Amino acid sequence: MINRVEKLSLLSEMIAFAKYDKDINNVEYNFLLGVAKQLEISRSDFDYLIEHPVTYTHLKSHSERIVQFHRLVLLLNIDSESSSSGVIKLYNFGLRMGLSHESITKVLYLMESFPNKIVPPDVLIDIFKTQYN
């Protein structure tokens, strides 16, 4: 299980991702707040992170990195105005997390074939599992 510092780092990273091209809209805010609740981060800590990001902490667990990448895919696609710059940003976040570029590329390619561009978790896990083995 990840510790509090890692949780704050994950959430801070997601906030930065949501802010990459504009302010966080209501849908993104509510999604991020839901993630904060899942990570057992208080709303006051969450609101603080929006204005005061924390330093990135690299996750040791490959499975936690995959879960985080999936969260970023979801975050990208809850905004109906997602752009190619968002996809590039997602790709770069995945690389920074140490995920294989082949897996990231495959997820981004397959994303177009799913309703609302949301890759189901089992499909995403299979993609990374295949590349990891």
TrEMBL record:
<dbReference type="InterPro" id="IPR029024">
    <property type="entry name" value="TerB-like"/>
</dbReference>
<protein>
    <submittedName>
        <fullName>TerB family tellurite resistance protein</fullName>
    </submittedName>
</protein>
